[in-house]
Amino acid sequence: MHSTNLLLEEPIRMASILEPSKPSFFPAMTKIVGTLGPKSRSVDTISSCLKAGMSVARFDFSWGDAEYHQQTLENLKLAIKSTKKLCAVMLDTVGPELQVVNKSEASISLEENGTVILTPDQGQEASSEVLPINFAGLAKAVKPGATIFVGQYLFTGSETTSVWLEVSQIKGDDVICVIKNTATLAGSLFTLHCSQIHIDLPTLSDEDKEVIRKWGAPNKIDFLSLSYTRHVEDVRQAREFLSKLGDLSQTQIFAKIENVEGLNNFDEILQEADGIILSRGNLGIDLPPEKVFLFQKSALHKCNMAGKPAVVTRVVDSMTDNLRPTRAEATDVANAVLDGSDAILLGAETLRGLYPVETISIVGKICAEAEKVFNQDLYFKRTVKHVGEPMTHLESIASSAVRAAIKVKASVIICFTSSGRAARLIAKYRPTMPVLSVVIPRLKTNQLRWSFTGAFEARQSLIVRGLFPMLADPRHPAESTSATNESVLKVALDHGKASGVIKSHDRVVVCQKVGDSSVVKIIELDD
């Protein structure tokens, strides 16, 4: 929580700020999740996004059908093949999202101090007087005085396409509201958010299950973004559902915290989920503005200490229409990194923004600059203190590897892993150098056929700060004799040299299993 101490204590020479940043193979340690959509679904654009630093592609099923997203995914596969850049796939569920149904897609003008009726009767045409919605229980959920926000899907906040409503009276199933600001609702999809109101709808809807079954399972999605996670039970139910879908039992669940309900149950949700997405758009509506930063810092700290990836959303909204972020947005991205974020998620900026590639590039550059002044020493001490003693065997090895790497000024840490757990634990201590996670495939059988695991584990590290995966030859097991590990190590070192992160005479810290023992060793490279 003491974020001011996360800056390096040495004073920064002001002239050094003007020195141009040196390009590197890894644009930043912080990862970037890009939402693919109308402006970012061609093979060329996706290829440019991957080169700019996108490592996770998000498919948002709040709009677009399975066929549309499948075509985008096929383009992503072609882009991965041509760029040779790994990219994970995230499916974002709709969840209990309330929507205004505007079948005609005609613009709707709303005037300040006028009234508008929200009705569950979807047979009515959307107009300035009536807005049909997809939820029949709104009249029972809200009371006079409640605040309701209606905005374009993935609204950026700078648009005049969003409106605040105040409930004045309930009439049967209809909710009559006073319009608080003049706005024009344009487009086909508007989301409706009721501030601090419980919506009695399942977190994983039947529609979501159908999408996961028919689109997620065949495509072996790496991450499921569980929208509107409100209780720990939401995550458990989603995991139980995924476990019945073959390969999806390995899919990681990221709980998306979007309202006060999820915030109140944050600790329990964090224990059960594989990672957390802080959906600051909706949280910014649910929370008083002056409390948003406090939630961010507190939530990121908890995720860091638990060693679970934390993703921050809504950072450069203005880049949806502009080539440069605002000063506040640029500072916000840097603060998200200094607060401990693993990844930055871009929504409207890449989905329908005019500059998807430039946005990814600029966010990556800001992250890289913030990482240079991240006070790793203080963070390391705080994490070790939080873990306490006695440490588990694996935690002790991971923290020792990071400490050794920093002391000898290693250029990279190489970690051999099968499940990815060891590499994630090393990343938890936020080393200042990249961690090459060499995932060794394991042979498994379902008694009908044999198959190798490893691809899931490799891609799932693409959302963890500082982790860069490579899939090893399955003939070299992670726990093996010294000789077989040496050959895999040579492959990893060659990969590091080819990518420019390892040079002659560099020191490298290697974390591996030899027989029953875990070993951390320091090697110095020859010419």
UniProtKB/TrEMBL annotation:
Q: Which UniProt keywords apply?
A: ATP-binding, Cytoplasm, Glycolysis, Kinase, Magnesium, Metal-binding, Nucleotide-binding, Potassium, Pyruvate, Transferase
Name where it mostly resides: cytoplasm
Q: Where in the cell is it found?
A: Cytoplasm, Cytosol
User: Boundaries of each Pyruvate kinase C-terminal domain copy?
Assistant: 395-515
Domain Pyruvate kinase barrel: start-end pairs:
30-360
What's the EC number here?
A: 2.7.1.40
User: Is Transport set as a keyword in this record?
Assistant: no
Name the needed cofactors.
Answer: Mg(2+); K(+)
A single cellular component GO annotation: cytosol
Q: Which GO terms describe its molecular function?
A: ATP binding; kinase activity; magnesium ion binding; potassium ion binding; pyruvate kinase activity
Q: What class of enzyme is it?
A: transferase
Pathway given for this chain reads: Carbohydrate degradation; glycolysis; pyruvate from D-glyceraldehyde 3-phosphate: step 5/5
Catalyzed reaction equations: pyruvate + ATP = phosphoenolpyruvate + ADP + H(+)
Which Pfam families does this one have?
PK (PF00224), PK_C (PF02887)
- So what family is this one in? Belongs to the pyruvate kinase family.
Q: How does it assemble?
A: Homotetramer.
Q: NCBIfam families of this UniProt entry?
A: pyruv_kin
Q: What is this protein called?
A: Pyruvate kinase
Q: Which organism is it from?
A: Oryza punctata (Red rice)
